[in-house]
Design a protein that fits this description.
single chain, Serine Threonine Protein Phosphatase 5, Tetratricopeptide repeat, mainly alpha, 12 helices
Length: about 250
Amino acid sequence: MIRYVLMVVVLVATVSFSQAQDIAVLMKVAENYEHNLKEPEALNQYKEVLALDPQNIKALVKTAELSCSIGERTENKNDKRLQFESAMAFAKRALAADNNSADANYAMAMVSGKMTEIETDNKKKIGYVIDVKNYANRALTINPNHAMATFVEGRWHYEMITLNSVKRTAAKLINSNLPAASLDSATAYLEKAKQLDPYYVLTYYYLNKAYKEDEKPAKQMDILSKMVKLPTRCFEDIAMKDEAKKELESMQ
């Protein structure tokens, strides 16, 4: 009997070790696909990881991010909605797996921001605007130096400043505890996000917008000059860097 139990324990341990190896290999392949800007292939690899480990937070967050990235470039409105809704499902799974994960809370904030782009009902859209702030706050409470959550906070402040005043007022009425947005807060969060991840192009993109809104051309030019030299890490980076190059040339 003891021998049988030992055999079962060894078998289970062997299977678990083999599965862990499989997951590590799949994660590495997915990361390589991302590095080579093959997002659909990377997304499929992360989904394979989830078939083996449904509560893998990193894979869940990555599938949410990639679904949003692919959806962003999708012209068909229905397909875009499907991608964003799929991203939301993955983000919710990540949060359900560990609601104390800064990454999972960041994913919910990030996807909620994308949902504001496709939601046609104003009340629901404002609900997503509030969710962006709440989940980003939660992520930063867990990890104050979470680069992506810090970026989301900065972007939220910038977008609230430039949001239609009626919707901004409505958001405050729905959630009276919602803090007032400001350009100073936007630039402060975005500058910190830049320090935490100096290669994330989207941070520079919104910093440029914020400094332009704040009428600070010298800081704008500094950000644009650095932005055009950044490495390309996703498809969106190409267009943003081209746009930055043109804007910088027009300012010189």
